[in-house]
Amino acid sequence: MDVLDKKILEMLEINARESFATIGKEVGLSAPAIGKRVRQMEEEGIIEGYALKVNHEKLGIETKAYITLVIHRGPSGTTGTQKHIEAIEAMEEVQRCDRITGDDCLCVLGYFRNNKHLVSFLEKIAVYGASKTSIILEV
Amino acid sequence: MDVLDKKILEMLEINARESFATIGKEVGLSAPAIGKRVRQMEEEGIIEGYALKVNHEKLGIETKAYITLVIHRGPSGTTGTQKHIEAIEAMEEVQRCDRITGDDCLCVLGYFRNNKHLVSFLEKIAVYGASKTSIILEV
Amino acid sequence: MDVLDKKILEMLEINARESFATIGKEVGLSAPAIGKRVRQMEEEGIIEGYALKVNHEKLGIETKAYITLVIHRGPSGTTGTQKHIEAIEAMEEVQRCDRITGDDCLCVLGYFRNNKHLVSFLEKIAVYGASKTSIILEV
Amino acid sequence: MDVLDKKILEMLEINARESFATIGKEVGLSAPAIGKRVRQMEEEGIIEGYALKVNHEKLGIETKAYITLVIHRGPSGTTGTQKHIEAIEAMEEVQRCDRITGDDCLCVLGYFRNNKHLVSFLEKIAVYGASKTSIILEV
Amino acid sequence: MDVLDKKILEMLEINARESFATIGKEVGLSAPAIGKRVRQMEEEGIIEGYALKVNHEKLGIETKAYITLVIHRGPSGTTGTQKHIEAIEAMEEVQRCDRITGDDCLCVLGYFRNNKHLVSFLEKIAVYGASKTSIILEV
Amino acid sequence: MDVLDKKILEMLEINARESFATIGKEVGLSAPAIGKRVRQMEEEGIIEGYALKVNHEKLGIETKAYITLVIHRGPSGTTGTQKHIEAIEAMEEVQRCDRITGDDCLCVLGYFRNNKHLVSFLEKIAVYGASKTSIILEV
Amino acid sequence: MDVLDKKILEMLEINARESFATIGKEVGLSAPAIGKRVRQMEEEGIIEGYALKVNHEKLGIETKAYITLVIHRGPSGTTGTQKHIEAIEAMEEVQRCDRITGDDCLCVLGYFRNNKHLVSFLEKIAVYGASKTSIILEV
Amino acid sequence: MDVLDKKILEMLEINARESFATIGKEVGLSAPAIGKRVRQMEEEGIIEGYALKVNHEKLGIETKAYITLVIHRGPSGTTGTQKHIEAIEAMEEVQRCDRITGDDCLCVLGYFRNNKHLVSFLEKIAVYGASKTSIILEV
User: Fold this and answer.
1) H76, H101, H104: residue with CB nearest B127
2) Across the interface, which of H70, H76, H102 has its CB nearest the CB of B133?
3) B50 within some domain
4) From its phi and psi, is residue D138 left (phi > 0), alpha (psi between -120 and 50) or beta?
5) C-alpha angle with apex H94: H93 to H98, nearest 5 degrees?
């Protein structure tokens, strides 16, 4: 990665749909040269993909919450933490799911249609552990 | 928003750089028709932008952490919480900054080059409040 | 609901037994007109009922307490939270029972004849979860 | 207070606007006799008033929360806790305000139009102490 | 109980072995009159007994601790809290055992020969609940 | 201290007003011999005094509480902890005051006429630190 | 132990491989005299051994953490705490393992190759209790 | 570092005073060859020194404790955390002092002659922050 790659990444971070021509004009390269560099960063795994930034409120999301989950463990302490994370990450309400230090727990960021939806989600994830919920207050 | 708009959003969520032609073929519309619908969703604020998904580890990020910040308040309880959030969100290490319920606090998600970088960040945000740090353990 | 309805509600909030005649004089309507508006607010569910404000101390209540209850869950995390709330709300000591954020718990406001009565209540609700008690100190 | 008074209280607790005639029929006394007993319970302070039960959601309340408030104290520990409670109880959002055991704090039950309203309330009461918020999740 | 009884209690609180003659001289009554009053306070249960104040350090006590004990409950929440308290109070190390508000727990004040003795006590009471220990630091 | 001294202590612990004659009969010594041994244990500081066990409820105590007090410290961390303890121990409501491990705090056991009395005590000790109160629930 | 022994210990604490000749020159004794004194301190158990101070980072340690472990107990509260400590102390990642006051727990200091290694260690010790992790941030 | 260096480190970890001749015999090298390798590991900073393992109890240590210290910060949040750590590490009672995640704090391991010594240490470090103490219970 050189200075030009960094510049390309910066422009794509502002607008991931930016045309290679526009980027090229800014950077001083041709569109195909930009395309080649982008494909290489994709192949190297530096660029993992292109995501949409939607307005969740306009799509019906009224409640956002951080939920920490102290993991239940079996009688011998055995657990399938990695499997739990994968199952939780696959739920449609879940934006992120991270294992964090402190109490042995997962931190889940979830988006919900309303508080009722949040409550039913809490019931659903209760099989994995004891939850603690903090609602995000947009200010 | 109708069923076609939803389908378009779904495809852009998988790949925000998808060409309108490809989306159109899937949805049964022409590329210009897709473009028109996308522009309308942009104008309505449903689509807020297009983001890059980069591999932060490959860009030199070794430490990711959630930091909660109980806000300092002046002798009369006055505070500029909204200003604090804006100042913190503008820091390059910060991915998210949310006001949450529970103790009167902010929840910051930050990415850092290493633990030393995290420590200097903690010193920097100490002007805003008392911090509590949980490191993300990739599993 | 218009301005007159709001005025009627305000007067009933001060004294729910206020006669429609007195309210009418204040509002500038006849007693039957007030009666019609009140019945409509009852039918729309805006007015749910009329409650007595009694002095609980004079009726033998010496101990009031907030009790939070972290819900017990079965081995598979299953629970009948909704049923628990209904069972607890039906107890004569219980004034309110709300599910709240934070630790996955219920918040119960209870009135008791004395501390002994509170202790026997704590034993009774122990089947639903682990309790934490804060006594209300009248000042 | 005798058995008849108890019966009268019970009927008024179900419907505080019940006519004395209806109560009398149930209890086996004339309407004036019921009226006399009710006035005596009012004079003795057993009956403190008659309250309206409104549906707050229909009146625009979207957010209900318990807020505990650890009281700020001056450099010499002096405080006007009693005054704080009175000031907080006088706020229109506040349903209850109790001093409770545990950490030296107040427990406030507040009803708010929405989360934004709650946040501005939190800013307002920050002059009295450090707050901790639990949202009520209707289930 | 009159003023003289109060005076007698005060003198016995300073020295519970004080002779009735000495107390009588102070109070202005004969020794038998004091004896009669003391016996009556014993019969009324005002005076429950006479205790020795020993120097525990000189009797080999090196470690004093407050131990709170969150009570274990069976699968149906049943418990024999009263029995637990009696069993714990009967242990020779235990000076006090009180049920307290907050987390559903007992507060035990224990005196131990040394830290090893404290540890074996903690193992012993683990059958009743989860313990938390605070050592008393004589200053 | 020999076996006989231990036996004497045990008898005085059951009843600190026991006559030396009765103790002597049990132990196999004369009353003066018992008196000599007791005086020696007093001189050695093993026996520190004789205390009255009164029934506090019968003397008007309705509220007993453990109060922990995290000590306020000046801007440079200086404190007069030892002085604080002495001032608190001298208050008539205070039965014990111990410095304990955990959060840098004092543990106070206090007896109060009622909750109002407790509240005024909490206001009084607020100059020394931030308090946390647990009411004793007699069972 | 006399003043010379103390001086010898001080020099060995700075450099445990210091030759007896060098120590002797400093202390004013012959090398054999130093050797004799050192052997006696070894025999008395004052000197337990000689340890290497290695730079763990240079040997591949990226993550150091304190982990507290609230001990699991069987249905009857029985436990083999002493055995647990021995098992944990024998693990190669463990530098210290202490039973501490507060919640009934062990405090483990562990050194790990990286966060992944720490996570697998946490899974391993989950059989002994519920863990809480604090990462050491070198500053 | 090769396999032989690792073997040398292992032997020195068991006994840091082991002679190079003995190590050489085990490893299959001459004493001077061992000496050369050890000196090189010293120069590379892999070996930082040689420490004494003393029995602290025999040297008069009765109390060992972990003390966490939430750092005081000035009105603008400024602090000299690094300086604090250095000042604390220089105290003779301190074995370790680490900055850790969780609440913004230091973790101090201290050895003390007795509880009185610990208390005076707590007073001394109160200038740096709010302390929390856990006594180590040798088992």
Assistant:
1) H76
2) H102
3) no
4) beta
5) 165
Domain CATH for C26:
1.10.10.10
Chain B contact for G135 (CB, 8 A cutoff): yes
Cβ-contact D32, D23 below 8 angstroms: no
Q: Roughly how many angstroms between the first and final C-alpha of chain D, as a whole number?
A: 39
Do B63 and B128 fall into the same domain?
A: yes
Same domain, G35 and G87: no
Tell whether A36 and A60 lie within a shared domain. Answer: no
> Which domain range does residue D18 map to?
3-43
Q: Which residue of C has its CA nearest to B103?
A: C102
Cα separation, F100 vs E138, whole angstroms: 8
CB B99 within 8 A of CB B106: yes
CA-based nearest residue to B124, from B96, B93, B103, B100: B93
Residue of chain E with shortest Cα separation from C133: E102
Euclidean distance between CA atoms E77 and H45, whole angstroms: 59
Whether pLDDT at H11 is above 70: yes
Tell whether E41 lies on the interface with C, counting CB pairs under 8 A.
no
User: Up-side HSE of residue H49: CA atoms within 13 Å toward CB?
Assistant: 9
CA geometry: angle at C61 spanning C56 and C67, to 5°? 105
Region C23-52 average pLDDT: 96
CA dist list (Å): A134 to A128, B88, E117: 18, 20, 43
Residue E125 lies in a domain: yes
The total number of structural domains that make up chain B:
2
Tell me, what's the pLDDT at E138? Answer: 79
For residue B46 the two structure tokens come to: 């449903």
Q: Enter the ipTM.
A: 0.88
Q: Are H100 and G134 in contact (CB under 8 A)?
A: yes
Helices (H), C1-80: 3-14, 20-27, 31-43
Residues F119 and F74 in one domain: yes
d(CA E130, CA E73): 11
Nearest CA to B68 out of A122, H13, A132 is that of A132
> Is residue A66 located within the same domain as residue A97?
yes
Residues 6+ apart with CB under 8 A from B44: A58
- Alpha-carbon gap, residue E124 to E90, rounded angstroms: 13
CA F107 to chain centre: 12
Question: How confident is the prediction for chain C on average, in pLDDT?
Answer: 92
pTM score? 0.90
Same domain, C62 and C35: no
Counting DSSP H helices and E strands in chain G, the numbers are 5, 6
- Contact of H56 with chain F, judged by CB distance below 8 Å, is answered with no
C chain contacts of residue A65, beta-carbon cutoff 8 Å: 101
CB G45 within 8 A of CB H55: yes
CB-nearest to E126 from G79, G99, G102 is G79
User: Would you call G103 an interface residue with chain E, using a CB distance cutoff of 8 Å?
Assistant: yes
Q: Percentage of chain E with pLDDT > 70? A: 95
In-domain check, residue F66 = yes
Residues D27 and D91 in one domain: no
Q: Which of F115, F120, F138 to mutate to test the interface with C (most CBs of C within 10 A)?
A: F115
Residue E28 near residue E60, CB atoms below 8 Å? no
Q: What is the pLDDT along chain G (139 residues), one digit of tens a residue?
A: 899 999 999 999 999 999 999 999 999 999 999 999 999 999 999 999 999 999 999 999 999 999 999 988 765 555 677 888 889 999 999 999 999 999 989 999 999 999 999 999 999 998 888 999 999 997 6
Q: Is H77 on the interface with G (CB under 8 A)?
A: no
Asked whether residue A49 is domain-assigned, the answer is no
**Nearest by Cα to A107 from D29, C121, B41, B136:** B136
CATH number at residue H86: 3.30.70.920
Which residues in B37-139 belong to E strands, given as ranges?
47-54, 63-71, 94-100, 102-103, 105-112, 129-135
* H61 and H105 belong to one structural domain: yes
